[in-house]
Amino acid sequence: MGGICSIVGGKLTTHRLMAEAVSDHVADRLGVDAPCYTAEEPLPGADDPAELDRYVAEFNARGPADEDVVGRRPESAPPR
Questions:
Q1: What is the CA radius of gyration of the chain?
Q2: 80: how many CB neighbours lie within 10 A of its CB?
Q3: pLDDT tens digits, residue range 37-60?
Q4: Is the pLDDT of residue 17 over 80?
Q5: Neighbours of 4 (CB within 10 A)
Q6: Cβ–Cβ under 8 Å, residues 73 and 49
Q7: Which of 35, 45, 71, 78 could, after both became Cys, cross-link 51 (CB 3.0–4.6 A)?
Q8: Cα angle, residue 42 at apex, residues 40 and 44 outer, rounded to 5°
Q9: To 10 degrees, the CA torsion angle through 58, 60, 64, 69?
Q10: Which residues contact 47 (CB under 8 A, 6 or more apart)?
Q11: Cα–Cα distance, 56 to 66 (Å, whole number)
């Protein structure tokens, strides 16, 4: 089946890079020359660490390598 593009896997910290790669691939296949600007768009919660923590909790997205995303503040640390 031609014309299909899919993407699987990834983790919270790499989803944007993966999305940009797929967007660039699809744009190239469609002959679109406009640059991808996903890396320049702020993510929900980017300016509010507490909101970001709520997203991480809501979607059960916390992982051992995600401390750089959810922050290192004592109040956001997982219970021990």
A1: 16
A2: 3
A3: 877 888 777 788 888 888 888 887
A4: yes
A5: 5
A6: yes
A7: 45
A8: 155
A9: -30
A10: none
A11: 10
E strands, 12-80, in order: none
Residue at token pair 């967007």: 23
Q: Which residues of 5-35 are buried (b: 16+ CB within 10 A; e: fewer)?
A: eeeeeeebeeeeeeeeeebeeeeeeeeeeee
Q: What is the pTM of this model?
A: 0.52
Contacts of 55 (CB under 8 A, 6+ apart): 44, 45, 61
Residue 79 DSSP label:
P
Q: How would you classify residue 49: left for phi > 0, otherwise alpha for psi between -120 and 50, otherwise beta?
A: alpha
3-state secondary structure of 15: helix
Contacts of 54 (CB under 8 A, 6+ apart): 45
